[in-house]
UniProtKB/TrEMBL annotation:
Protein's UniProt keywords contain Iron: no
Stated family: Belongs to the sodium:neurotransmitter symporter (SNF) (TC 2.A.22) family.
Entry protein name: Transporter
Membrane-topology descriptor: Multi-pass membrane protein
SUPFAM superfamilies from the UniProt entry: SNF-like
Length: 460
């Protein structure tokens, strides 16, 4: 067993931690996924259920990850191993850390490609390619980008390299400085766009859609989709929050910061809805458009609105920043692990991690580019998967995230010595009991239900 020195870097201020964690959480999940699944699952009623899931499941697991990270003071795998040893538990519990790091890395392999799309759209918009374009032209633009592997490789490579540079620069010079600049800019752009969109678009219909719940449409699946998204949107079970917890000063209150980050992430998702839906309704688009909502339909709105070139460009810059701060967060834990394990410089660790990342991202690039070798024909857990992207996305979101979350809840709730967690959480006895009840019982039961549903073993 190699022994590594504990991580000594700490967030400079509580605010810089909050920005970094919010930056990790806020991403493509808030800006395209949340609006579209909300659109498919009954709008306001979905929001209500989703909020309950964030409170009962998301926040407790968020807290668990920060507790494990801060107590462990290593990258997630080693942190989990140390806690297992200290708690005199079976060493297999360390898998909690390793599996979640792996999940984060696999998510990252397609995340950087989609971030590359956002970047490509910044240029498309700025060049005026949306001006006066009709539906067919926009669809062609989107397909042309997705199927051009040269274009996608260039943008993906750029994103990966930028990520390597930020992470290689070291924790304080790179990550902290970047999020401190990027997050406020992103939030400002988003709020500005929401005002603009409300003024230009159909605000009344959007508000009605988002805030007047109609529970008659709610099914068991709605509940399960909301639960799964609560998980994805907070970047849980992907090594991210455990890693960020390792940089937390002992004095920071994990309880209150977790609550604030969950609120911030939720607000961004709601504001994103207020940017997108007034436009969707005003321009006669459909709410349940899926990934295409942003890339295929919003340009249509930008095409005909006043100041469309400017607004469109700003929108995709914002999306790019949101995706980029999430990408950085996923590389951070892997690069830190490589430094600990191989005792090499941070630059070498970041560059080699990103070289592997880039190679694996080609699976997604060529899936969209329809390369014959990237096409598959697999049937897995009740779902038809056509290419490598489908397989990676499906396995991470629907299998590894729920399993990792279950492992974290069980590890923090049952395996790690209660007194360790109690000392880290450092709150009232009653608040601690509530948290413990949620990770011991509520989260495992809920996640098991989601998992069974998604694997098709349960039909509700
Ligand atoms: N939370 C991110 C989003 O909403 C996605 C993500 C998942 C990021 C897991 C990191 C790890 O877009
Ligand atoms: Na999110």
């Amino acid at each position: 067993m190699t022994s590594h020195t504990a991580i000594s870097s700490r967030w400079s201020t509580r605010l810089s931690f909050m920005l970094a964690a919010t930056g990790a959480a806020v991403g493509l999940g808030n800006i395209w996924k949340f609006p579209y699944i909300m659109g498919e699952n009954g709008g306001a009623a979905f929001i209500v259920i989703y909020l309950l899931c964030i409170v009962a499941l998301g926040i407790p697991i968020f807290i668990a990850e920060l507790l494990i990270g801060r107590r462990g003071r290593h990258s997630p795998g080693y942190a989990a191993r140390q806690l297992a040893v200290e708690s005199k538990r079976h060493p297999a519990w360390q898998l909690t850390g390793w599996v979640t790091m792996f999940t984060g890395f696999m998510i990252l392999t397609f995340y950087v490609v989609i971030a590359g799309w956002a970047m490509s759209y910044v240029f498309k918009s700025a060049q005026g390619m949306f001006i006066d374009a009709n539906q067919a032209a926009i669809t062609q633009l989107y397909r042309g980008m997705a199927s051009s592997w040269t274009e996608m490789i260039i943008f993906t490579a750029f994103i990966v390299l930028a990520t390597a540079i930020v992470v290689g620069n070291g924790f304080k010079q790179g990550l902290e400085r970047t999020v401190r600049f990027a997050m406020p800019v992103m939030l400002l752009l988003l709020v500005g766009l929401a005002f603009y969109s409300s003024a230009v678009g159909d605000f009344a219909q959007a508000a009605d859609f988002m805030f007047r719940p109609d529970f008659s449409e709610v099914t068991a699946t709605t509940v399960l989709v909301a639960l799964g998204h609560a998980f994805f949107t907070l970047s849980l079970a992907s090594g991210v929050m455990m890693m960020y917890g390792a940089y937390l000063p002992a004095s920071t209150s994990i309880l209150s910061t977790s609550v604030w980050i969950a609120i911030a992430d939720t607000l961004v998702a709601l504001i994103a809805g207020l940017v997108i839906f007034p436009l969707v309704f005003a321009y006669g688009l459909t709410p349940a458009e899926g990934p295409g909502l942003i890339f295929q339909t919003l340009p249509l709105a930008f095409a005909s609105m006043p100041l469309g070139v400017f607004i469109g460009t700003v929108f995709f810059i914002m999306l790019l920043l949101a995706a980029f701060t999430s990408a950085i967060s996923m590389v951070e834990s892997i690069a830190t692990f490589v430094v600990e394990r191989f005792d090499i410089s941070r630059w070498a660790a970041a560059l080699s991690t990103c070289a592997v990342l880039f190679s694996l991202s080609l699976l997604t690039v060529f899936s969209f580019a329809q390369a014959p070798w990237a096409q598959l024909d697999v049937y897995l857990f009740g779902k038809q998967l056509d290419n490598w992207f489908d397989v990676i996305e499906h396995i991470t979101s629907n299998v590894l995230l729920p399993l990792g979350g279950l492992a974290i809840a069980l590890f923090a709730g049952w395996a790690v010595k209660t007194q360790f967690m109690q000392a880290e959480l450092n709150t009232s006895a009653r608040a601690f009991k509530v948290w413990q009840f949620l990770v011991r019982f509520v989260a495992p039961v809920a996640i098991t239900l989601v998992f069974l549903q998604l694997t098709g073993m349960l039909r509700l």
